[in-house]
Amino acid sequence: MGAGRDSHTGQAAPVPLVLLGMGNVHRELLGILGRKAEGLADRYGVTFSVAACADLSGFVRGPGAGGRIATGAMLEAKAGGRRLREIPGAEPISLESALDVAGPRGILLDAASMDVETGGIGLAAARAALNRGTSVVFANKSAFALAFDELEALAAANGAGLGWSATVCGGLPVVNTGSRDLVGAEFRRLRGVFNSTSNLVLGRMAEGLSLEDAVTEAQRRGIAETDPTNDLNGTDTALKLLILVRTVMRRKASLADVERTGIEAAPEPGADEVVRLLGEAVPDGDAVRMRVSPVAVPRGSFFGSIGTLDMAVEWETDLFSTQRLVATEGDAIPTAAAVLRDAVHIACGRPTGPSLRIGGS
Ligand SMILES: NC(=O)c1ccc[n+]([C@@H]2O[C@H](COP(=O)([O-])OP(=O)(O)OC[C@H]3O[C@@H](n4cnc5c(N)ncnc54)[C@H](OP(=O)(O)O)[C@@H]3O)[C@@H](O)[C@H]2O)c1
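^ thats the input. predicted complex w/ NAP below
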């Protein structure tokens, strides 16, 4: 996975990316890649090219693979509500061809819509990529959360990288810090406000806005899914909690184990309280109790004092006492940056996921 060299120039050849999904996250990623290309090359010796990309119309060859569409044309088409295959000159290809174009040095970036039932295209594409030794980075938490044991084993068996730091709390390095830096610790409790859309909506509704107007603001900012149902009914928070339980707390658990209540059942807060959609995991012997629910918390408490654009995590462990992380994210840029972070680590040959022994916990 280390940088290959161009046989003519001796420069590190660009790492080919396959972009699955062309929504908020990947559109921001394309912007970052454009703005930061020189800095990434100078600092990490890594450059990227877009070998292929996909939206609901399917895969097309990307501009970095000699495709006949330019990045600007892709962004313009998506901003105008058009599909990639409608762009004049776009060359339709299959998932398999997209992965062939990327090759084993390539990285599949999954920022497709969630599919909580089956993992959807994200899971199918990740399996296909890892089986070929192509690394995978997820922003789409459903595919990863539903099949992490299998994906981690596939990555290890095929020498591929696996990154998922963008799946929980956008750019906040919760996954990385929690999995790398709590060595030897036993968790007593983990809690968090993991979903920025529900936090924004609860905050705006407390200010007197309607649910619809608050959701519209979250969508305008690019932090809500096109269909915000899973943001509001607790499913998104449950998936993030599950990912932390599996990869940071290292306990076996599944989505069905998470007790879930959405913001529609928010309690009436007292005078000095605010409502937060909290995810909570508490170890219980070899198992773990997991719950997502809207809770009224004192304004002066840690979770009560965070802002409407914040996400926050608090964990209590035996060795490291209580630690709290907070991020303010008003758009999808930090999530896109987290995708890039994982891709850079993989391109530099630093394992992201496979250094963890998820399956053996
Ligand atoms: N936005 C954030 O701040 C954020 C933060 C953390 C994680 N995430 C996760 O990252 C993922 C992307 O988020 P987003 O905000 O970018 O979502 P989005 O704007 O709704 O974009 C989703 C993209 O997935 C594409 N897609 C859906 N089904 C597909 C399929 N079967 N084949 C190929 N492409 C498909 C859509 O195609 P069309 O364009 O044709 O509809 C769209 O381009 C989601 O899973 C989300 O949960 C997002």
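Residues 20-25, 54-56, 83, 111-114, 121, 139-141, 166, 170, 222-223, 225-226, 332, 335 surround NAP (CB under 6 Å).
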